[in-house]
Amino acid sequence: MFSSLLLLAIGLGSTAASAGPIAVPVEKVGSCPSGYSTSGNYCNPGSSANYAVIKTGSCPSGYSTSGDYCLAGSNAAHALPKTGSCPSGYSTSGDYCLESQTSSADPMVATALPKVGSCPSGYSTSGDYCNPGSSANYAVIKTGSCPSGYSTSGDYCLAGSNANHAVPRSGSCPSGYSTSGDYCLSSQ
Predict the structure, then answer these.
(1) How far apart are CA 70 and CA 161, in angstroms?
(2) DSSP characters for 22-34?
(3) pLDDT at residue 17 in the model
(4) For the chain, what is the mean pLDDT?
(5) Domain range annotation of the chain
């Protein structure tokens, strides 16, 4: 579940198929959601896939059920699994926190992260989450050494200006990603 939180915290922006959050690889739980294919221990999104989160309870507003996942609809907001109260800028929707504003199409845009230790540089504590400031860099929770292009900031890895999208590694990396220590980095 911990790695699921890491993967859930990274999907932002919009896909060509929708105006909701951008589809990124998600940890495989059961069969992959519609529009995704199995790639190692991940579900890799196809070109027209919608953003997916692992289902816990009922899907949040704007999402529909697809097996063990919730799929974002065309105008869905970015969803985080709810632990405690939602961070500022997010509202409660069942077992999830939904972002109040529209996300950018760039998966490297900073978003709220589950709080582990102290928040990374550029982020502030908001309940059980770290909320990005206006100039915060994209970050992932640190597991082992930070991936190439990232620097350590407490218990997090912060993306540098030319860093690629990182996903915590669970087994072999999904297609389109290569191994960088304990992470998988997008080749795009």
Answers:
(1) 32
(2) PP--EE--SSPPT
(3) 38
(4) 82
(5) 2-186
